[in-house]
Amino acid sequence: MLKFILMILFLFICNFYKKSFWLIQNLMFLIMSCMLLSISYSSYFVNISYYFGVDMISYGLILLSVWICGLMLMASENIYKNNNNLNLFSFMIIFLLLMLIFTFSSMSLFMFYLFFESSLIPTLFLILGWGYQPERLQAGVYLLFYTLMASLPLLIGIFYMKNINFTMNFILLNFVEMHNLVFLYLSMIFAFLVKMPMFLVHLWLPKAHVEAPISGSMILAGVLLKLGGYGLLRVFSMLQKMGIMYNYFWISISLIGGILVSFMCLRQSDLKALIAYSSVAHMGIVLSGLMTMTMWGLSGAYTLMIAHGLCSSGLFCLVNISYERLGSRSLFLNKGLLNFMPSFCLWWFLLCAGNMAAPPTLNLLGEISLLNSIVSWSWFTMIGLSLLSFFSAAYTLYLFSYSQHGKSYFGINFFSLGLNREYLLLMLHWLPLNLLIIKSNFCMLWI
């Protein structure tokens, strides 16, 4: 694993050269190719070096992190053109990628916690340094305090486990069953619930998304929300008995919250806020599937996390493309885009179809697995799940039809054909989203 970490460390050296922006982006895709070719994925940790190794759970998320970070640079051409602290910007993205790879490849619970929290720092700098409005300061404070306040109990819980088990290695902790302590159960999972985010502790996410630049929104939607799911996958092996006793509470909140958030999506006027709230609804169903602790639930949650990372990131790119031309994210002003940008209407349709889990996207596979697991856990969840699925389709169709159809507010009578870079950016989001379903047993293999 260290060889890939060293490759990313050498990107810092490339950053000192002038006009190295596109070089760094191409090298990220090269690193991605090397990872695909060299790591033989397994249900157990492989490629172990020092505290770092990869297993089936972390492998897909590391690939997603490198992929999204490469696409972040591709989407941020405005920063390149305006030379807006370019070297610092690319430094932050490389640093964030390094922290994410450290997080997903850590074999020790404490090392995981350390890098899990460190990934917050470059994200905060991206929002504060390259955000749009003055409200980004408030968004940064929300992000910082929500996540840090919930993480302190996790640190105490980790040290408590170390005192009892004399180890923090994931492999050894998999065989440990913790005592029936409610405080320990809450402290071990609450930080991950905030990071996902679960309904009731989700207010930081729309704030951060709306104020973040396109790169910040992509990494937040693409990878940082998945840190919570990954953490829960790791710690639930130690909390199985307590999970059976108390998980019904989180499943109820997630399903009811998903329906309420869907209603909030239907009355949003900001395109970014609508997609951000839809992420809360999707992560709610992922959390419900995880909490059932069944094979279908765990594999479905993992699949939907990968799918949502690609789909949601692509939708944020589309919003940014129209924002760069019209100077507004308001749904009242972004009407009739079919007349203004006809070529992008197809991409809006394809990615909106992915967002509502239409075939043949990977979202469909994840949602079918999650529906299986949650309904088998309790028949009462049928009501919540049916409403959630219906309103998910409703707000996605609202987003598509309202933005693409109707009379343009500006009375625009010219076309924007788009740039090759933008088409490539959207294609690189959509292609893996639809090709991964062909090899669907890949997402189920680690179980």
Automatic annotation (TrEMBL):
Domain spans labelled NADH:quinone oxidoreductase/Mrp antiporter transmembrane: 106-391
Protein's UniProt name: NADH-ubiquinone oxidoreductase chain 4
Organism: Coquillettidia chrysonotum
Catalytic reaction equation(s): a ubiquinone + NADH + 5 H(+)(in) = a ubiquinol + NAD(+) + 4 H(+)(out)
GO molecular function per UniProt: NADH dehydrogenase (ubiquinone) activity; NADH dehydrogenase activity; ubiquinone binding
GO CC aspect terms: mitochondrial membrane
Similarity annotation: Belongs to the complex I subunit 4 family.
Pfam family, one: Proton_antipo_M
Topology versus the membrane: Multi-pass membrane protein
Residues forming coiled coils: none
Location(s) in or outside the cell: Mitochondrion membrane
Alphabetic keyword roster: Electron transport, Membrane, Mitochondrion, NAD, Respiratory chain, Translocase, Transmembrane, Transmembrane helix, Transport, Ubiquinone
Domain of life: Eukaryota
Enzyme Commission number(s) of this protein: 7.1.1.2
